[in-house]
Amino acid sequence: MHRQKPHQQKPRLAAYALSLSLLIAFGTGGGSAGATDPIYVGWSHLLPPWTNEFNPDSQNACRAGRLTCVKQVIKKMDRRFIPQAENCHHNAVFSLAYLRTTEEYARTAAQPGAFDDTAFVNHEDAVFAEFYFQAYDAWAEGRKRAVPAAWQIAFRAAQNRTVAGTGNLFLGMNAHVNRDLPFVLAGLGLVAPDGTSRKPDHDRINKMLNRVVEPLLAEESARFDPTMDDVNTPYGVSYTAMLQVLVGWREDAWRNAERLVAAPNAQARALVAQDIEDYAAVTARSLVARYQYNPPITSSAERDAYCASQNS
Predict the structure, then answer these.
(1) What contacts 205, CB < 8 A, 6 or more positions away?
(2) 292 SS3 class
(3) What sign does the dihedral 143-149-150-155 (CA atoms) show?
(4) How far apart are CA 173 and CA 244, in angstroms?
(5) Which of 154, 225, 231, 277 has the fewest beta carbons under 10 Å from its own?
(6) CA nearest neighbour of 126 among 196, 58, 172, 201
């Protein structure tokens, strides 16, 4: 078995350590919400890409990258989210988060100069969403062997109502970012045809996400689980902690995509791919342990009754 070089392991381990420490911080918030966006700590753009290799093997979804494609993605998300919300299914928590994030992306992408290559990022948005749709639909249809492990853990926790709303949110984020995103990035290509890195546009998404976190948690709390905005602190510090978990995972996804692209052969790529799967699955299990209910002391009963009253 081939062993990874030390410099290939460090970004993943560092991001994992960052994620764990911030998850702990996120779980201890309290107080009142700040009136402005949470503090933005844009550190990931300071880390340059490791490779400059152009990958011409792009995915085909919404190939032209027009904004109408993003609007089509939003409609697909709505079709899945609406029945989830009406039935207070715990999958609704992540579905709402993804829907609101994509809506904010559409508003951002409509602004001239928002990205170096807006059409490409639009295309990436659609391909990325397709990974979620495929995993969700496969699970819903009972084709569980076709569902990646991290998604299985997330969907099972939602189906069995075993974790708090914040856990549902983080489980979906973990599966989609830590598991799906490296494969999307590597498949689409990390560099433009002129050889310039696409990482600056990747990092611009992080700043957009900063605008989503606080109103999203307020809506999640109002509709599905009233404990989800318990992280309110003066100046949005806990919101910032949550964002930094996501930023750390997105940075890790880029590094893992670089490892996929740089792998010298199919066997090496398979080892990297398995490492990505394992990392996302281990993180998912850690999240379940962190956010699970402990019957009979705690359960989802209060949350479910609250949701029913808010969505009736």
Answers:
(1) 105, 121, 250
(2) strand
(3) positive
(4) 12
(5) 277
(6) 58
For tokens 């299914």, the residue is 89
Q: pLDDT (tens digit, 9 = 90+) per residue, 216-266? A: 999 999 999 999 987 655 444 477 788 889 999 999 999 999 999 999 998
Name the amino acid, one letter, at 176. H
Return the H-helix or E-strand segment holding 198.
none
Sign of CA dihedral 71, 123, 79, 96: negative
Domain ranges of the chain: 6-310
Whether the Cβ atoms of residue 225 and residue 80 lie closer than 8 Å to each other: no
Q: Are 290 and 27 in contact (CB under 8 A)?
A: yes
C-alpha neighbours within 13 Å on the C-beta side of residue 307: 23
Residue 49 phi/psi, 5-degree rounding, is -65, 150
Q: Which of 217, 219, 243, 226 is nearest to 38 (CA)?
A: 243
Element (H, E) at 39: none
SS3 content of the chain, % helix, strand, coil (to 5): 70, 0, 30
Q: Express each pLDDT in 13-62 by its tens digit.
A: 444 444 544 454 444 333 333 344 444 444 444 344 433 333 334 444 46
Q: Are 51 and 195 in contact (CB under 8 A)?
A: no
- The set of residues, in sequence order, having a beta carbon less than 8 Å from that of 204 and lying 6+ positions away, is 114, 115
Structure tokens at 141: 């249809």
DSSP label at 89? Answer: -
User: Is the CB of residue 26 less than 8 Å from the CB of residue 226?
Assistant: no
DSSP state of 176: I
Q: Within 13 Å of residue 180, how many CA atoms lie on the same side as its CB?
A: 25
